[in-house]
Amino acid sequence: MRALMVAAALVASQPSYAQAKDPVVSRKDRALHERLLTLDTHLDTPASLDLPGWSIEEGHNVKTDYTQVDLPRMKQGGLDGGFFAIYTAQGPLTVEGFRNARDFAIMRGLSIRQMVAADPVNFALALKAEDAAPIAASGRRIVYMSIENAYPLGEDVSLLKTFYNMGVRVVGFAHFAHNQFADSSTDPSKKPRYGGLSPLGRALLGEMNRLGIVPDASHSSDQVLDDLLALSSTPVLLTHSGCKAVYEHPRNIDDDHLRALAAKGGVIQMNAYGTYLRASRPNPERQKALAALFAEMREDAKLSEAARERLLARRQEIDRLYPDTDRPSFDDFMAHMLHALKVAGPDHVGIGLDWDGGGGVSGMEDVTAVPRITAALVAAGYSEADLQKIWSGNVLRVLAAAEAAAASGK
């Protein structure tokens, strides 16, 4: 499974990166950005941690190895930290499938913990909302943990406690397909399985509320979001989503749901996954070449460093032969951001760019470019207080509410 996950990350998800130099952020806006406590709620970077020969301690180039987050680039981009995701691809809803997914997810979580333990000078695990500020003040990167796709929990919601003990504080119910807990917004059948949460999904939500874990509705259907808003005792998070009013896509949510989310204290964290931002011109030759490369990688039982180098070289050749010439841009991302702010207000919008999981747009290719968001929000008239909420205050408020509810037993 690990080789398949690596292949997916390097072959299927990431766009081409040939483009002009990014615009320069002014000194004033950069200084403001550095004053803010900045968190991204969806980092798929843990997949990079298990790449052969790759180290988060070293600076990498998105145009050559396609990774987007490492320690030098977090410092360069002024990103204080975020939620490092334990992502598990959806597999069969069988005893064997659940067992394999559980084992993979536990090992991925341990990779995150090992990253922190290996460099306590630069990383610190955060377990509560109040942990973020002192970690940032110490000059370390803030590491919260999350789960994208609850599939590895199998049919035993009590397993959630194991991941909570590991450090997980946000959990998403589904991913690209329906699972045992909830309907996905993008299931290939295009038909609901449960019409929202399954009975097991409702039990899982109850366990999240009991433990103080924030429920994440990204990737789940609109009906799942309806159920979460009706049933959760704490506010709901969308860790990486967009706006249907800007682009009609199942992964985005409409204005009515935005307002309902805000009314219950929830937050939408804005995604930079190009496919969800706007339609792009078809590029069949590129897609055919990427599909062939991905199929070849599926046959590898284990990805060696040499095999990864061959994969990267093949991927770079595909980019050269069939460039992605109609990539969504930073302006497309900001269109979603500004619309969400208009509808839900600055108390209910945040940032979850989906780095290392397919996120990134022309003009914001990796984490070094995130100060552009601060500059664009300043230009749109938002205050420093607004920006602090957007960059971290809102998600920390939601996390604190989950903690408080769990402590009170409500």
UniProtKB/TrEMBL annotation:
GO biological process terms on file: proteolysis
Assigned EC number: 3.4.13.19
PROSITE patterns associated with the record: RENAL_DIPEPTIDASE_2
Class in the EC hierarchy, top level: hydrolase
Coiled-coil ranges per UniProt: none
Membrane-spanning residues: none
GO function terms (MF aspect): metallodipeptidase activity
Pfam families xrefs: Peptidase_M19
InterPro entries reported in the protein's UniProt record: Metal_Hydrolase, Pept_M19
Signal peptide coordinates: 1-18
Keywords: Dipeptidase, Hydrolase, Protease, Signal
PANTHER family xrefs: DIPEPTIDASE (PTHR10443:SF12), MICROSOMAL DIPEPTIDASE (PTHR10443)
Protein name: Membrane dipeptidase
